[in-house]
Design goal:
The complex is a heterodimer of chains A (about 500) and B (about 90). Chain A is α+β, with helices and mostly antiparallel strands. Chain A has helices at about 60-75, 175-195, 230-235, 245-265, 310-315, 320-330, 335-340, 345-360, 360-380, 390-400, 405-420, 425-430, 440-450, 455-460, 465-480, 485-495, and strands at about 10-20, 60, 85-90, 100, 110-115, 120-135, 135-140, 150-155, 165-170, 205-215, 235-240, 270-275, 280-285, 300. Chain A folds into three domains: about 10-315, no CATH class; about 320-430, no CATH class; about 440-495, Arc Repressor Mutant, subunit A. Chain A has 16 helices and 14 strands. In chain A, the strands form three sheets. Chain A has an eight-stranded mixed β-sheet with strand order 5-6-9-1-10-11-12-13. In chain A, helix 9 crosses helix 11. Chain B has about 90 residues and is an alpha+beta fold. Chain B has a domain at about 5-45: Histone, subunit A. Chain B is about 35% helix and about 10% strand. Chain B has three helices and three strands. The longest helix of chain B has 18 residues, at about 25-40. Classes of the chains: A alpha+beta (about 500), B alpha+beta (about 90). Strand 2 of chain A pairs parallel with strand 1 of chain B, so a sheet runs across the interface. Chain A: Belongs to the GatB/GatE family. GatB subfamily. Chain A: It catalyses: L-glutamyl-tRNA(Gln) + L-glutamine + ATP + H2O = L-glutaminyl-tRNA(Gln) + L-glutamate + ADP + phosphate + H(+); L-aspartyl-tRNA(Asn) + L-glutamine + ATP + H2O = L-asparaginyl-tRNA(Asn) + L-glutamate + ADP + phosphate + 2 H(+). Chain A: One of its GO terms (molecular function) is ATP binding. Chain A: Keywords: ATP-binding, Ligase, Nucleotide-binding, Protein biosynthesis, Transferase.
Chain lengths: ~500, ~90
């Protein structure tokens, strides 16, 4: 049975997320070891992050600032007092046999993030976001490299102690594409805040809970308002090992289909943890003999409580994408679509404002939002690929603004060549001979076109206004496309009427 | 001695700590856990004293400090390989 043949109309997908993001700090959360990536294992380690006896953690102020910034951005409560707990589990990625995390008093509580999904604005509730330390990284070696069949384990504690923020959403998602949109939005906000680097490998890790609920069990009749009872009645799976928003969409689409197929064949969905295997594109059961989770949380006595609620007023955060989008509409008179495109990343927005400060905001919007982003997108490039070349793009807009080249040539020849051949705009204009033809040359071409096409001239004279278009085409041909069609039209009319 | 700790709890804790206990060891640990917990009751006899004000907001600036040399970091490991700590397969 393929997914297409399944009648899925009466089943509702419910997804909630736990998103782990690494905070961009210079040092680890509880010690002064560098968080820089290095190829050499166990270079950035010390007694604290190796869990040596007697070592004491001291909290990194920058990690707390990052957490407060995130709290502000998601409009969360920062409680008067928040504290750390030990989460006990026995696995070699944590040398202490416990992870320092936050339990019942997380630093951010009850926030939300607005996200746009296929044109609809949705608000996703964020139940909590808390600080914790990243574990070290394990390599399972030998026996084919599989986690179960490996011969031994190699452990690198460079990552151990990197500050993490775990962001937990309410089960507010109804489709994998919503999850992807949310994660993209979250990344964008975190990057705007300057607390996160999406380019960094492993900086975003996602665990997702997915369950399928028959629509008739939703008492409210509204799929966005599913009661706790219906949620609790459905078995859910937790999908682990997702590391990107694209991966999340794929993993959850797979899991959604798998569960729906099971239900439609009359089989129960087992409540379990599943591992997303990115290379095979499937989720696999992590059925383990492990005992029920029992983390025996208790207060971390080595870290005094935090009282940082007032930091929310003291720490400022940059203008966030949604606010900037609205300002772009007000300040530059852009429509919502253009404003959305132009605020898609901070770098795009900053660049737009640079261009708009020098030239007409509408022209700047057309160039940045439509032409530049369009051509970049077509080439699977991003604005970051233009690092160091923004002045060249600005120069291109200037050439158009000063009417030194036509918009068509600028877009279709110069911009494309800039991206494909990495040439500077003036060099392209020169090489391709795109400089606008001077007026005498255009005038000569107009006269020549009239001389050579008496039939068209007669047609025009007898009232066929369409004939002018034919003549414009002739002039454009003679000038190699560098004349302005509007000007040519007027010159022709002037010549013919005169 | 009272049932401060049950044999079942001892087995559970041993499992969480990946410690394999034989039945007679379970009995032994059950008794010893009870003794240890009872010993904590001694604290009830400590007189009330003024304590120092609670600390809050103890933090350090985000400034890098020297890490251990890798050799020193790995010094106490029973097995290492290419700068990694080496251990048995864990699943």
């Amino acid at each position: 049975m393929t997914a297409q043949t399944v009648q899925q109309g009466d089943l509702v997908t419910v997804i909630g997320l736990e998103v782990h993001v690494q905070l961009e700090t210079d040092t680890k959360i509880f010690c002064g070891c560098s968080t820089d990536r290095t190829d050499e294992p166990n270079e950035n380690v010390c007694p604290v992050c190796l869990g040596l006896p007697g070592a004491l953690p001291v909290l990194n102020e920058a990690a707390v600032e990052g957490a407060v910034k995130i709290g502000k951005a998601i409009d969360a409560d920062i409680p008067e007092e928040t504290r750390f707990h030990r989460k006990n589990y026995y696995y070699p990625d944590l040398p202490k046999n416990f992870q320092i995390t936050q339990y019942d008093e997380p630093i951010c509580q009850e926030g939300e993030l607005e996200v746009s999904v296929e044109g609809d604005r949705r608000t996703v509730a964020i139940e909590r976001a808390h600080l914790e330390e990243d574990p070290g990284s394990l390599q399972h070696v030998g026996g084919g490299g599989g986690i179960d069949s490996a011969e031994y384990t190699l452990v690198d504690y460079n990552r151990a102690g990197t500050p993490l923020m775990e962001i937990v959403t309410a089960p507010d998602f109804r489709s994998p594409s919503e999850v992807r949109a949310f994660l993209a939005k979250l990344e964008e906000v975190l990057e705007y805040l300057g607390v996160f680097d999406a380019e960094r490998d492993g900086s975003l890790r996602i665990d997702a809970n997915l369950s399928i609920i028959p629509e008739e069990e939703i008492e409210s009749g509204d799929v966005t308002d599913i009661g706790a009872e219906a949620l609790a009645a459905a078995n859910r799976t937790e999908v682990k090992n997702i590391s990107s928003h694209k991966g999340a969409e794929k993993a959850l689409a797979y899991e959604e289909t798998r569960q729906k197929n099971a239900i439609q064949r009359g089989r129960a969905v087992e409540q379990e943890t599943r591992h997303w295997d990115e290379s095979r594109g499937i989720t696999v059961s992590m059925r383990s003999k492990e005992e029920e989770k029992d983390y025996r949380y208790f207060e971390e006595a080595d870290l005094p409580p935090l009282q940082v609620a007032h930091w929310k007023d003291e720490i400022s955060i940059p203008e966030l994408p949604s606010a900037r989008r609205e300002r772009f509409q007000d300040e530059y008179g852009l429509n919502e679509e253009a404003a959305s495109k132009l605020t898609s990343t901070k770098q795009v927005a900053d660049f737009y404002e640079d261009v708009a400060s020098e030239f007409d905001p509408d022209l700047a919007a057309t160039w940045v939002a439509d032409n530049l982003l369009g051509e970049l997108n077509y080439r699977d490039m991003a604005i970051t690929d233009l690092e160091g070349r923004f002045e060249e793009v600005t120069r291109l807009v200037e050439l158009v603004a000063e009417e030194e080249i036509t918009a068509k040539n600028a877009r279709e020849t110069v911009l494309r060549s800039m991206l494909d051949d990495e040439k500077a705009p003036d060099a392209i204009v020169e090489d391709e001979g795109l400089g606008k033809t001077d007026e005498d040359e255009v005038q000569q071409a107009v006269v020549a076109a009239i001389d050579e096409n008496p039939d068209a001239v007669d047609d025009y004279a007898s009232g066929d206004d369409g004939a002018i278009n034919f003549l414009v085409g002739q002039v454009m041909q003679k000038t190699g496309g560098s004349a302005d069609p509007g000007d040519v039209n007027q010159l022709l009319r002037a010549e013919l009427e005169g | 001695m009272s049932d401060a700790v049950s044999a079942e709890e001892v087995r559970h804790v041993a499992e969480l700590a990946r410690v394999d206990l034989a039945d007679d060891e379970v009995d032994q640990f059950t008794r010893q856990f009870a003794d240890i917990l009872e010993y904590f009751e001694t604290l009830d006899e400590v007189p009330e004293v003024d304590r120092e004000a609670d600390l809050t907001n103890v933090m350090r600036p985000d400034e890098e400090r020297d890490s251990l040399d890798r050799e020193a970091a790995l010094e106490n490991a029973s097995e290492t390989e290419d700068g990694y700590f080496k251990g048995p397969n864990v699943s």
